[in-house]
Specification:
heterodimer; A: alpha/beta; 9 helices; 6 strands; elongated; B: alpha+beta; five-stranded mixed sheet; five-stranded antiparallel sheet; 10 strands; 44% helix; membrane (chain B); ATP synthase F1 complex delta/epsilon subunit N-terminal domain-containing protein (chain B)
């Protein structure tokens, strides 16, 4: 029985050794990996044991990262849900015009600074590039403002000249409105825009993140759209209280809208980041667990094979002595 | 005269107000901590306040005491959050998507023409609860949504009247008010419902009154009047008047002026 299995394994050893190709690609030939070149008898379990130790460590680390992400998610989810009421009055007043025709578009892409969070940053960057393509045209220019390290790394490769501003280390201190307001002020000071498009991942649930685009129009565009009718048509029916001119109020309104919507967007994106990290680490620790099971089986097989080999040697030696 | 953008003005007001409100909230939190010690099983009502506190502490340029309180809060929060694990799982799904999401069709079509392989991103309209349409007769009650960045104080609350501190003075809003966009200055918001009047001191913001008797009030900080400390207000007023007289650059003058305005508004809120 053991001889048969050993002969089978021997055939498996022989084939990869003859092919003289790197064996790393073939998972099932793990046995062959640690097999020393022909001539040396003892089968060592050391290599398999090393792999098992490192995979177990990976499993522990990813499980811990998942717990950390879960606790951070809990903390930030309440804040994100509380801030959801902030952008709704603006949309109720000004409507939503994602297909507005604007000459100068600025795409504000929100992403995370740290990695290992699944595909959310790539999704944001893909959508930003698509919006860039959508809003491109004669006499139109589209620029990027990037929040977060990961989007910067991806966008700097092919759209370096279009990046107006990039901001990193947003989450060094817990997010609060004042910080985001300062940021919004900086962006508005340095960037000329007709329409601002904020791209972020909205937190729908722990496993689902919806890429979303919020549009904020500059006061001139708002006036133009209000005059031409359509969604903003009844903006003129609103009385203005305070300030000298309607233009001044609209300017303040646009700035305030930008900082409120940006605050909500940043919180939602942070929530999505933690949720995505949680699910990525969860699947990673599950994969590590499965790998560990397979390695354990391999280890046991190798161990038994080496014991069997020793027994055979002893017995054949003894029988040779007896004659 | 220097031009300060709206956001800049708001930031200065918040930083000034936080210094007052932080001490108030800390007093409240200490009372709450005592309650917590007596009722160790009390669940999720305490978290929002300590979290916003730590945020305010950052905004107010943390001193050493605030850092230690933040650490204490963080450790307490972590301990509480681990206990709340089963509760969290029940809340995994958010409930803010309305039953029939509205989509902007022109956007989706133009997207599909240029980028056929990718799903278009969602827009805020999808996530918005639809607002009631303008009724033909004036409704009897005003629906008020009062939102702050950290919480929705009042959402769709039916009241009789609100008085908002617009830049042109206190403005009373009744059901059937003409649609208005009002910029707010730091002052008192009072909500009248039947015989109860609740007063909040607001930092600046905006108020929208729509034709369907829905009022949206957006402010950054709001504190019930009875929680404001009179002595701190007086001290702040004196400090800022002094700063105004010794200010050299335009920016300093503007900041000191804003401080004086905010503190005198607080003063009149407490006395008036």
């Amino acid at each position: 029985m053991a001889m048969a299995s050993l002969r089978r394994e021997g055939r498996r050893f022989a084939a990869p050794l003859i092919s003289s190709q790197p064996i790393t690609a073939i998972r099932s030939s793990l046995i062959a990996e640690e097999q020393a070149p022909l001539g040396i008898r003892s089968i060592s379990t050391q290599v398999v044991r090393n792999r098992m130790k490192s995979v177990k460590n990976i499993q522990k680390i990813t499980k811990a990262m998942k717990m950390v992400a879960a606790s951070k998610l809990r903390a930030i989810q309440t804040r994100a849900e509380n801030s959801r009421g902030l952008w709704q009055p603006f949309t109720a007043l000004l409507g939503d015009a994602p297909s507005v025709d604007a000459k100068k578009n600025v795409i504000v892409t929100i992403s995370s600074d740290k990695g290992l969070c699944g595909g959310i940053n790539s999704t944001s960057v893909k959508i930003s590039k698509a919006i860039h393509k959508l809003t491109a045209g004669p006499e139109k220019e589209t620029k990027y403002v990037i929040l977060g390290e990961k989007a910067k790394a991806q966008l700097i490769r092919d759209s370096k000249k279009d990046i107006e501003l990039s901001i990193t280390e947003l989450q060094k201190n817990p997010l609060n409105y004042t910080q985001v307001s300062v940021l919004a002020d900086d962006i508005l000071k340095n960037v000329e825009y007709d329409a601002l498009r904020i791209v972020f991942n909205k937190f729908h649930s722990v496993v689902s993140f919806l890429p979303t685009m919020s549009t904020i129009l500059s006061p001139e565009v708002v006036e133009r759209e209000a005059e031409s009718g359509g969604k903003l048509g009844d903006l003129d029916s609103y009385e203005i209280e305070g300030g000298e001119t309607k233009g001044e109020i609209l300017q303040n309104l646009a700035e305030f809208q930008f900082s409120c919507v940006l605050f909500n967007a940043v919180l939602e994106n942070a929530c999505s980041e933690q949720g995505a990290r949680m699910s990525a680490m969860d699947s990673s620790s599950r994969n590590a667990g499965e790998m560990l099971d397979r390695l354990t089986l391999t280890y046991n097989r190798t161990r038994q094979a080496s014991i069997t080999t020793e027994l055979i040697e002893i017995i054949s030696g003894a029988s040779a002595l007896e004659g | 005269m220097i031009y300060l953008s709206f956001n800049k003005i708001i930031i200065i007001i918040i930083i000034i107000l936080c210094k007052i409100f932080y001490s108030i909230r800390r007093r409240n939190r200490q009372k709450r901590v005592e309650n917590n010690i007596q009722h160790p099983l009390s669940p999720a009502d305490a978290p929002p306040l300590p979290i916003s506190e730590s945020a305010d502490a950052d905004a107010a340029a943390a001193s050493s005491t605030t850092i230690t309180t933040m650490f204490r809060q963080a450790s307490r929060l972590l301990a509480r959050s681990i206990n709340q694990q089963p509760k969290m799982m029940a809340r995994a799904f958010s409930t803010d998507v309305p039953a029939t999401p509205t989509v902007d069709s022109t956007f989706v079509e133009s997207w599909k023409k240029v980028i056929p392989n990718m799903e278009p991103p969602k827009t805020p309209l999808t996530f918005m609860q639809p607002r009631p349409s303008t009724p033909s007769t004036i409704p009897s009650k005003l629906t008020v949504n009062f939102v702050l960045p950290y919480a929705s104080e009042l959402s769709s609350k039916e009241v009789d009247m609100v008085i908002v501190p617009a830049t042109t003075g206190q403005m009373g809003v009744l059901p059937g008010h003409v649609p208005t966009i009002a910029e707010l200055k730091p002052g008192v918001l009072s909500v009248h419902e039947g015989n109860d009047v609740t007063k909040y001191f607001l930092s600046s913001g905006f108020a929208f009154i729509h034709a369907n008797s829905v009022a949206d009030i957006i402010a950054i900080e709001a504190v019930p009047i009875d929680q404001i400390d009179q002595s701190l207000v007086q001290k702040g007023l004196a400090e800022f008047t002094q700063k105004l007289s010794t200010a050299t650059t335009d920016l300093e003058k503007a900041e000191a002026q804003i401080g004086v305005d905010v503190h005198s508004a607080l003063n009149s809120a407490l006395t008036g």
